[in-house]
Design a protein that fits this description.
The complex is a heterodimer. Chain A starts with a helix and ends with a helix. By secondary structure, chain A is an alpha+beta fold. Chain A is flat, with a radius of gyration of 28 Å. Chain B is α+β, with helices and mostly antiparallel strands. In chain B, a hairpin with a 5-residue loop joins strand 6 and strand 7. The chains are: A alpha+beta, B alpha+beta. Chains A and B meet through helix 3, strand 2, strand 3, helix 13 and strand 4 of A and helix 1, strand 1, helix 4, strand 6 and strand 7 of B. Strand 3 of chain A pairs antiparallel with strand 8 of chain B, so a sheet runs across the interface.
Chain lengths: 676, 161
């Protein structure tokens, strides 16, 4: 009772503080008054502890099981363990928006506490941009999607939802909550939303710097230097969020897939694509003073796509499995995106002439030439994905008939573009900045190209005939060979020059140029992920069979035999039906597999848990599809064989490792402004 | 030199535009309500269509011999605003299932029964309408709005503070 009012009150105070920090920043700029700028900064710092207390209030309500609070009733239940109750904070719409605000408060806190010597003039504008974003999201939480509203029974006997006790109404306290959907009770799903949101929110800071640079008319690359690591960390979390979501789909959704091109998935991918293009493109500006305008465009685009992504996941525009429910926040989001995009683009137009390039592109075979190609293809991918997501809206506006795009659309567009990106990744590490000739590049490309041709020939000999697989695996081989050769050449060079042992030289070299070699590691990870994706996309096989005890079915060289079916009530509120199967390869016993189906009494929801036999060659993925409830000696199974799928996860881990290397702060204590 | 870049860039751009346009033509699916589909059943036969409806729990049947899943869906409005004005998705689904006068459509799907397939779930089905009037599904998406919808609990205890 008291706590929910406290949580709400804290939100109101935070909103006031955020509004104050925006106004103080404005005054600081117009009057050129240092005191006001410092005051705006202090207010920005204050939003984080305030939001933390509000989050704590919500967490307390959930953990204590105060089901009079509607949000708690919807996401928590008595039988949920403590850690799941904590994750229920972002398990529903209003809670996740509060969580979003909290992360933005954290970012504001970290930015405001930095040393500002070199960015004195940028500071108030940065605070202002963050404050405006925070005010928008806080207003949503307070006025539209409030997690602190409670149930009441009016004097007339009807039930209602309100923040404060209506006159004559009594509190309505349910005995138990509905609890989190069991399908979401998975480690991947527990950490997927926070990781994704950290990625989303993280990109707001570089955007704030970009806008501040535009307003103050600074054409240097200070905004990029100051936020490069921010962008990398945001990108790391965004990638992690996408990967965790895929893993969750693979483990839980039971269709043997990992990515369905659902509009909401695509919406999370969009800022990732523009962010990836940005991270490549800023290197052109830093090294060669090129693409200043383009980097601004990419950053503005990324910010809009972050808000758009949050909007898609939080509104009912598209009937997608992810959307929480219909809600009123759609038009508000649309207005905010349109407004910020418009203002950003007007600012950019005003500064357009100042942001010209200092140099020119000298050769298409230089590093920057390839980065340009990379950006071009990335933009193609972005436009294709955006087109697919908004096509239903466009078609409805112009023809009155909603036309949606199936996964086939994305696959047929993204496939060739991904292949092209792989090819570029294979060539890029062999090029040099500035001048580069086709001849010198050709010489360095010789061995990697020959190596990948050998790989393709071997694949042909093993019976691989699909062109898409040959091209994709050939390019993946090119990336791996070129990257490893280039890496080992540098390590060997250093080892000979400085008389260091090879592992030591490897460690020192990577440490000295973390960005470059972090990038190498990321590219290796992506190539491995491509191998996994090609495996499952082009070579997945499946079968269905109804078996009685003792009967078998075969797939991909494995024989699966049903031994028995058992059923029991677990002590945590589930009814479990499990099939005991043996998996053999020829005559050799491999393992026991027990795919099962859990029925959660409280949530009235079934959860299918596959039995998976996982190797580097592929996963045997068994689903208990149906069973005879009376005789329990017969059941139906759907079995998938997913070749090479584990390389997707392994590649993903290597990708994360590479990003971590690239984002790792320098050891020497340089001034803070250049570090973060 | 500059002209060469521009021509090269334009060529790549043209290739990507072609890719997007041709993929759009091949993969468009009409998203319509059950009523709209049945009104235009002649033109729509054999075309890839996406429809949305409320699942009738009693009709869900899985045949282990043919390995096919079948169930019936009831027409619901396609327009978000219309759904909102009728009390939200959960209420619309509930009303649809109760109303025998609404249009119904039988769905057949060869595949595993999804966990969320149950009475009053929203089914978003992609597939084609067969000549015999049964909708053959290639893809099933299910939404159970009651899980997230902000609604008032039916069995609640009132206490005086």
């Amino acid at each position: 009772m008291l706590i929910s009012n406290l949580g709400f009150g804290l939100l109101i105070i935070t909103l006031i503080v955020a509004i104050y920090s925006g106004i103080a920043a404005m005054i600081g700029v117009t009057r050129n008054a240092r005191v006001w700028a410092e005051s705006a900064r202090a207010a920005a710092v204050l939003t984080f502890p305030l939001l933390s207390l509000s989050m704590l209030a919500l967490a307390g309500l959930i953990v204590a099981g105060d089901y009079q609070v509607q949000y708690v009733y919807n996401v928590a239940s008595n039988s949920m363990p403590f850690y799941l109750k904590l994750t229920a904070i972002w398990g529903g719409q209003s809670g996740s928006l509060l969580f979003w605000c909290w992360l933005l408060g954290l970012s504001a806190f970290l930015v405001a506490l930095r040393s500002w010597h070199s960015d004195q003039d940028l500071l108030p504008w940065i605070i202002l941009v963050i404050a405006i974003t925070l005010i928008f999201f806080l207003s949503l939480v307070i006025f539209v999607e409030n997690p602190f509203v409670r149930f009441w029974r009016t004097a007339g006997g009807s039930e209602m939802v309100a923040l404060f006790q209506p006159a004559g109404a009594l509190p309505l306290i349910p005995l138990d909550g509905r609890g989190m959907n069991p399908l979401l009770r998975h480690p991947g799903m527990v950490f997927h939303p926070p990781a994704l949101y950290l990625g989303f929110v993280g990109f707001i800071i570089p955007y704030a710097y970009a806008i501040a640079a535009l307003i103050t008319n600074r054409s240097d690359d200070q905004w990029i230097r100051a936020t490069r690591r921010w962008s990398l960390v945001a990108w790391l979390f965004l990638s992690l969020g996408l990967l965790l979501g895929s893993r969750w789909a693979y483990d839980v959704l039971g269709w043997g897939g990992y990515w369905g091109w659902d509009p909401v998935e695509v919406a999370a991918l969009l800022p990732w694509i523009s962010g990836t293009a940005f991270l490549h493109s800023i290197m052109m500006q830093e090294k060669r003073s090129l693409s200043k305008r383009w980097n601004m465009i990419l950053m503005i685009l990324t910010y809009s796509l972050v808000i758009f992504g949050t909007f898609l996941t939080r509104s009912g525009v598209f009937s997608s499995v992810h959307a929480f429910s219909q809600s009123a926040i759609g038009p508000l989001f649309f207005g905010f995106i349109a407004l910020t995009l418009l203002i950003s683009l007007v600012l950019l137009a005003l500064r357009w002439r100042n942001l010209g390039a200092d140099t020119q592109l000298q050769s298409p075979f230089s590093r920057e030439g390839l980065f340009l190609m990379n950006n071009l293809v990335m933009m193609g991918l972005l436009i294709a994905c955006l087109w697919g997501v908004i096509y239903p809206l466009i078609s409805e506006i112009f023809t009155g008939q909603q036309v949606t795009m199936g996964p086939g659309y994305y696959e047929s567009v993204a496939g060739p573009l991904f292949a092209l990106l792989l090819l570029l990744k294979g060539i890029a590490p062999l090029t040099t900045w500035g001048a580069g000739s086709s001849r010198s590049l050709g010489k360095r490309l010789l061995w990697p190209a020959l190596g990948s041709v050998v790989v393709v020939i071997v694949l042909l000999l093993f019976g691989v005939r699909q062109v898409a697989a040959l091209v994709g695996l050939g390019f993946a081989a090119l990336v791996i060979i070129a990257t490893v050769l280039e890496y080992s050449r540098a390590v060997r060079g250093r080892s000979l020059r400085l008389k260091e042992a090879l592992p030591h030289a490897f460690w020192r070299l990577t440490n000295l140029n973390r960005r470059r070699y972090g990038g190498f590691i990321i590219h290796l990870g992506v190539a491995l992920m491509a191998v996994g994706i090609i495996g499952i996309e082009l070579y997945q096989t499946q079968t269905q069979a109804t078996l009685q005890n003792g009967q078998s079915v075969s797939l991909a060289g494995y024989t699966v035999t049903l031994q028995s079916i058992s059923s029991w009530d677990s002590n945590d509120g589930r009814n479990v039906i499990a099939a005991n199967l043996t998996v053999n390869r020829g005559a050799r016993f491999i393992k026991q597999s027990t795919p099962r189906s859990d029925y959660f009494y409280d949530a009235q929801q079934t959860m299918t848990v596959p039995g998976v036999y996982s190797t580097l060659a592929g996963d045997l993925y068994i689903i208990l599809a149906d069973w005879n409830p009376i005789y329990t000696n017969q059941a139906t199974f759907k079995i998938y064989y997913n070749p090479l799928i584990n390389w997707l996860w392994i590649g993903g881990l290597i990708f994360m490792l590479g990003t971590l290397v690239a984002a790792w702060p320098p050891r020497k204590s340089t001034p803070l402004a250049e570090v973060a | 030199m500059r002209a060469k870049y521009i021509i090269g860039g334009l060529l790549i751009l043209a290739a990507m535009v072609f890719l997007i346009v041709s993929a759009t033509q091949k993969n468009s699916q009409y998203f319509m309500t059950v009523d709209e589909l049945l009104q235009q059943s002649q033109q729509m036969q054999g075309r890839s269509v996406r429809i949305s409806g409320a699942v009738l729990g009693d009709t869900i049947y899985y045949d282990p011999n043919t390995l096919t899943l079948s169930f019936t869906i009831v027409a619901i409005p396609g327009d978000n605003d219309e759904i909102e004005s009728q009390g939200g998705l959960a209420a619309v689904l509930h009303a649809a299932v109760q109303d025998p006068a609404r249009t119904r459509l039988k769905i057949e799907y060869s595949g595993v029964r999804p966990d969320q397939l149950k009475n009053e779930a929203q089914a978003i089905v992609t597939g084609t309408l067969r000549a015999d009037g049964v909708f053959e599904a290639e893809e099933l998406l299910l939404k159970c709005p009651t899980r997230y919808e902000e609604s008032i609990p039916q069995q609640a205890e009132t206490t005086v503070p």
